[in-house]
Amino acid sequence: MTIKKFQGRTQDEAIAKAKAELGENAVIMNVKEVRPRGIFQSFKRPTYEVTAATEEKEKHVDSGVALKNLQKMHETINMAADEQIQIPPPAPKQPVMPQSAPASQAPGAPAIPGMPELTPEQGNAAEQSAIEFLKRNAGLLKKEDSEERERIEEKLENLQSILEKQLASGAGKNVEDKEFSKTDSKKKENLAFIKVLYETLINNGVNEKYVNQIMDELEKVNWNGSSVDQILSNVYQKMILKFGQPRGIDFSGRKPKVIFFVGPTGVGKTTTVAKIASTLKVEQGRRIAFLTADTYRIAAAEQLRTYANILDIPLTIIYSAGELNQGIDQLEDYDAILVDTAGFSHKSPNQKEDVKSLIQNMDSHYSKEVYLVVSATTKYKDLIEISDVYKEISDYKIIFTKLDETTTYGNILNIKMYSGAEVSYITNGQNVPDDLELFNSQKMVKRLLGGS
Question: Which of 44, 25, 26 lies closest to 34 in space, CA to CA?
């Protein structure tokens, strides 16, 4: 019996391939739908696999024909055959040619190359043994011919019984197919859940490029046999790792720590400086001073002076990069100096050079940190340009403002993935200092995954 599998784009195509190779009498034992592997390949059309069988034709042996063939073979039979022949002890007489030897053969030569010479008595005995051998085989052929037919009939009956049981148990599906059905059902459930996660991240503003990266990493895990909770936990952990562990201002090194706040106009830099100063002084007991280089915007210095008066913090105004080191020297007894810089458009090269000169001309005797302040409401394309421009100025950490003015937080992950810069703080309102917090990666991932 021959059993083979055939595949086609449709069920009919697979069956046609089976019958083309095995014949029209081929028995279709099983038809199985095969879906492509992989998360996003599931959108492709499935193929079909057909298992077909056909009974091999048994060669029928006619005993009469076989006997005639064997008798004909007797004329050229090799006496050195495997059949055990009893030969009487040789007598020292003149060798003669066996009756089956050709007449042209030279006297005394063996009948067949490599065959020993036989006496007349040996030849007669061998011939008689050969005839008895043929008779025995002829009788066996008749007997085996009948037995062979019985074996074929028994095989056909067994095949019919097997097919009936397979059809009764569900179109011939075996145990392996049933297990595949269970696995396939679980896979479909998990795939549906992954699609929901995918759409949730997209709807929350995560760029498709980074969503695909997360899904590709998920596909490397054996999610087919996982539960929905395990898949969600895996995605949750991977996204937290992408955000990393946020840190606040580092006060290690020589005092004072000089902290620059840079960023485009209108993102809330000055208010953010006041919030951080209040947190450091009131909650951590740090000695804080203000220094502003924002002389472009009208009343910018006055706004920071108002906060300085409320917090009882000294304020120094500088008008050029050359005055920066002198202002720092006057405040060297403080733990930190927060420097508010002028906001500028990322498309303004002149203002960019002013801020770059301010930061790079600082005396290396002091340690510094740079924070890029950006709004969570800014479009992703603009955020990319902003991050690139400020990367030319200095390495930085990121502060996201105005989270209270948006319902999508995907740009926070987008810029973290794009720039590789650490997200340190977020703000979600105008209240000083209440609406400021150290970035919480776990809380943000929950929001991105549709939680609260």
Answer: 44
Q: 134: which 2 tokens? A: 């043929």
User: Measured between alpha carbons, how far is 73 from 134 in angstroms, rounded to an integer?
Assistant: 10
Per the CB < 8 A criterion, the answer to whether 384 and 353 are in contact is: no
> Average pLDDT of 278-299?
85
Q: For the residues 120-142, what does the mean pLDDT come to?
A: 50
Residues 263-274 have a mean pLDDT of: 90
Rounded to the nearest angstrom, the gap between the alpha carbon of residue 98 and the centroid of all alpha carbons in its chain is 79
Residues 49-75 as b or e (16 or more Cβ within 10 Å = b): bbbbbbeeeeeeeebeebbeebeeeee
CA–CA separation, 340 vs 342, rounded Å?
Answer: 7
Residue partners of 363: CB distance under 8 A and separation at least 6: 325, 328
Q: Backbone dihedral region of 258: left (phi > 0), alpha (psi from -120 to 50 degrees) or beta? A: beta
Residue 386: both structure tokens together: 């902003």
Model pLDDT, residue 343: 80
CA separation (Å) from 168 to 29, 49, 59? 12, 20, 33
Quickly tell me which residue has 């926070």 as its tokens: 412
Distance CA 29, CA 31 (A): 7
Q: Which residues contact 137 (CB under 8 A, 6 or more apart)?
A: 70
Residue type at 95 in one-letter notation: P
Which residue in 421, 439, 429 sits closest to 262, CA to CA?
421
Choose between 131 and 358: higher pLDDT.
358
pTM assigned to the model:
0.59
